[in-house]
Amino acid sequence: MKKRLVFITLILFILAAAVTVFATSIVTERTFESNGYLPLDEVMKAAGYSNSGNGTFETEYCGAEIKVHFDFENNVCTKNLYSFDLEGTYILCWSGYYIDVQTVSAVTNKNITVKNGSITASDIDYSPHQWTTEFEPIVAHSGGDVRGGQYTDYYTNSLEAIVQNYDLGFRLFELDFYLTSDDGLALVHDWTQYGNNDGLPPSSEQWKEMQTHGIPKTEGQYYTTMLIGDLLDQMLVNRDMFVITDTKSFEISIEDTKKQFEIIRDEALKRDPELLKRIIPQIYDEQMYELIMDIYDFPDVIYTLYATGSTADRVAEFVSDKDNIKVVTVNKEDARFTDDGLAEKLRAVDRLVYVHSLKYYDEFADCAKYGSYGYYAHHLTPADYNVYKTYADN
Length: 394
Known about the structure:
The structure is a single chain. By secondary structure, the protein is of the alpha/beta class. The chain has helices spanning about 1-35, 40-45, 100-110, 130-135, 160-165, 205-210, 230-235, 255-270, 285-295, 310-320, 335-340, 340-345, 365-370, 380-394, and strands spanning about 35-40, 50-55, 55-60, 65-70, 75-80, 80-85, 90-95, 95-100, 110-115, 120-125, 140, 145, 150-155, 170-180, 185, 210, 225, 240-245, 280-285, 300-305, 325-330, 350-360, 375. It folds into two domains: about 35-125, Copper Amine Oxidase, Chain A, domain 1 (2-Layer Sandwich), CATH 3.30.457; about 130-394, Alpha-Beta Barrel (TIM Barrel). Helices cover about 35% and strands about 25% of the residues. The strands form six sheets. Strands 11-14-18-19-20-21-22-23 form an eight-stranded parallel beta barrel. Strands 2-3-4-5-6 form a five-stranded antiparallel beta sheet. The radius of gyration is 26 Å and the shape is globular. Residues about 10-25 have low confidence and may be disordered.
């Protein structure tokens, strides 16, 4: 009898312990979720990724293959060429890894929501001008600097520049474009210092076989050249990347300007029409606005002033009835900005001024005196902007 009682007591104890563990696991999981952490496998599945094992998840989007790997040992997540810091963004418990919602949203470029215990991931649909408030108003000029241990190269318009600056927090990229000899569209600042260094464009194939460099030209440092299709493929991988075009259209014929934007439109439409919401043409004069809008109804356009003699008053008047022009870009030393009250005139018609190009930290304050809102930068980063903004606000 005693043995049976002991046996029954033992069974009851085990059952109670199991119930306690089960109840504790439910409470733990709910606690994690209420604090913004979701089970990694489930949230990645909801985002459209298949689990390849060992922390690796894969998906395909409009022809782009995307591989995400979570390396919790080294606190880093990689997505193709790009990296995300995982420090402090996850919890490990008996059932597996729980990941911070904001982190997994940034990695997958999805809106992640939880309702009644069910995880939903939906595509982010950016509205016109949302980029002016969604991200720090700092633009990677010519793709941004490539930073090495003993050098800094700019004007590369290279894959390496895009990857490094995306990893540093940039989501707005200004890039230079020129036609190749066979009517491809290359990312390049000019054909005088790049390509064959003779002012003549190479073919698309020749350009892709070359390696480009930056300014100053660092011995032994060369970078991956790109055509518009290569850039668009990176934008498929990162669906929070916005591109501002610098097509130097004031230096070329109207016919070649049309070709540039027809190529951009057609290459985007081959992949995903959504890309055209994240391509922001810069126009250089009033006539160019109608030209590009005849090619495609771009939801966002920037009016950049360095090739026009229009007065500050005329600029404000021109953009005031253009719903898709929210931003005017001007050189930081332009008299229309420093002397003629351009920023104030634009604020009166609900428009913003971005200035180019900043190299040094103190230029934030110099430009802010005249009403700047955004900045095109070389080696300054979004983190630098946030430091400046913190102290400016205080």
